[in-house]
Amino acid sequence: MEGFFFQATVFLAAAVIAVPIAARLGLGSVLGYLAAGIVIGQVPGLMGGHAAEELQHFAEFGVVMMLFLIGLELEPRALWDMRHRLLGLGGLQITVTGALVMGGCMLLGINWSVSLAIGMVFALSSTAIVLQTLSEKGLMQTGGGRSTFSVLLTQDIAVIPMLALLPLLAMPKTPDMILGETLSRLSNSEKHGHAEGAHQAAQSLIDSLPAWGVTLVTLGAVAAIVVIGVYFTRPVFRFIHATRLREMYTALALLIVVGISFVMTLVGLSPALGAFLAGVVLASSEFRHELESDIEPFKGLLLGLFFITVGAGINFTVLFGNLFPMLGLALAVIVVKGSVLYGLGRMFGLQGRDLWLFTLGLAQAGEFGFVLISFSTQQNVIPPQMSEMLLLIVALSMLITPLLFILYEMISKRLTDRTETPQPDEIDSSGPVIIAGIGRFGQVVNRLVRSSGFDTVVLDHDLTAIQRMRRFGIKAFLGDPGRPELLHAAGLAKARVLVAALDNPEATTRLVAFARRERPDLHIIARARDRTHVFRLYQAGADDIVRELFDSSLRAGRYVLENMGLSQFEAAELQTTFYQHDRKSVRDLAALWDPNIPTTENAAYIRCAKELENELQTMLMSQIEEAAAETVTEKEQDRHQT
Q1: Does residue 208 belong to any structural domain of this protein?
Q2: Beta-bridge partner residues of 545
Q3: What is the pLDDT of residue 384?
Q4: For labeling, which of 73, 93, 141, 241 is most exposed (least CB within 10 Å)?
């Protein structure tokens, strides 16, 4: 146990130090874990021994949990709706990339089965690195970001048939090899007990089967998991739910993943395959979110440990002995894969920055490459010496990924002036209400006003949003609402109300200021991001300012009061009082707010805010006490009447 604790302490300490540094540098957590593992692997005494092997088994279980969570996200109906993009863009990427890599390996004289396994390894990209980078840089909702996500989703799904196919590619074992492995496992069973002996005996039985027999066992195990997931998990969840013990959810979630993994390993199959299938089966369950929240912390930590063990296992003797060939092969993978992605992106209509994001974002190999290489080595598909080189190439391509995103940003800046922007529409109608911005805020405003019988003129610079409105029969015009000529064409001179509902706070403020200068009598309703934005809009001349989350938050607060014992009427009265007081507070504070002085250093503003908060608390408490006194009086009157 001392060795295990020491090894765990080293791994966790390295993760706590390296990952935050990598995240601050914009490299992503996966590269931080890999770097930590590389450092551990180069320090004598920190990596090795029986304790390290046990910890590595724990770490590999993180991959199993990740596949289970991926399965939970893939509800069958949602997959069916996305089938065209998944099979088209994602399927072609995997097929073409895998075929090109396989062909290149065969030209180098490598056996076709090994070449196919290598092609599958390099057809995959890094889900962890790419998705995190897209989220951090705000690129997920772009055309290139959505296409990238579709391909990553297809790759994650494709891992499962790849894991099922790899045993069929294994080099046939001779009777002497099977006998030797059986004797070795029997010897191990004497050391590790009967459970280990049963596992080893079952593994020997599977190994003795022909390839078609392994496939039949795989299909049988898959069918068993589906049946158990459909018919047995829900009753068990309801039974656990009746106990109302929070820790039992976690225990059951771990039982599902660990139990299925044990069954799969017992019959000689990949535990990741079973975990993924179980996740897909449970994706439509009402307990899906409970499972997700219970497994997520374990997955993150164990997956991080897996990447550390991968980094620690990199053989730098092999790397430095073949530095330029290894770098050349890693760059060759990126070039081949990038060429395929560029061609498919053009084929599917991607252009400009979206095309380059799609191409450079997915050009590396991924973390599932480590899984496939490890599994291929275990299944006697890829020779151990070759697997070390492949691990190095995968790791190097992932380490190059931040440079690819930097290259994308450089290309993106050059494309800024060259990218053709859609020409604004010619506005041929006007109305009493102009709505600038048709996002999630402006849509609701527009629906309410139009449904009440009033004409609106809708402006937005987002072509996708305009096209979406037109598909629903709503007339909308493409163009920048901040451009004076567009506003005048929309009827600014005669309009009665302008709704400034743009997503960009600065653009909203500029629009309000311009409209107020042009039409001092116009009623302007503006969407605000936060209280500071309210003050800016107030100074710009807006009449009514709506914080985008204020009303919904206020309504949620009212529900809290109702569930704390207040009646609906009392909670509604308190909500109204709070609303009216907040409007007054904003006006008072706006008069003291100075954009050139930080709020925390504005003494007059802070003093006024404290006074207003005390005033609000006094008003609400007084109102609650009055309501309680009225309730007591009514009860006494009812008792006297009785």
Answers
A1: no
A2: 526
A3: 83
A4: 141
Q: Phi/psi at 544 (nearest 5 deg)?
A: -120, 130
- Sign for the CA dihedral angle at 19, 22, 28, 34 comes to negative
CATH code assigned at 338: 1.20.1530.20
Q: How far apart are CA 189 and CA 178, in angstroms?
A: 16
Pair (321, 444) in one structural domain:
no
Residue 205, in any domain of the structure: no
d(CA 360, CA 356): 6
Tens of pLDDT along 510-544?
A: 899 999 998 999 999 999 988 888 888 988 889 98
Q: Angle 428-431-435 (CA atoms, 0-180°, nearest 5)? A: 95
Predicted TM-score of the model (pTM): 0.54
Cβ pair 286, 75 in contact under 8 A: no
Which tokens in the block code for residue 35?
Answer: 């770097």
Decide if 134 contacts 145 (C-beta within 8 A).
yes
Range of the domain at 340: 2-170+305-406
Q: Write the DSSP assignment of 525-571 as a string of letters.
A: EEEESSHHHHHHHHHHT-SEEEETTHHHHHHHHHHHHHHTT--HHHH
Pairwise CA distance, residues 510 & 528, whole Å: 13
> 222: how many CB neighbours lie within 10 A of its CB?
17
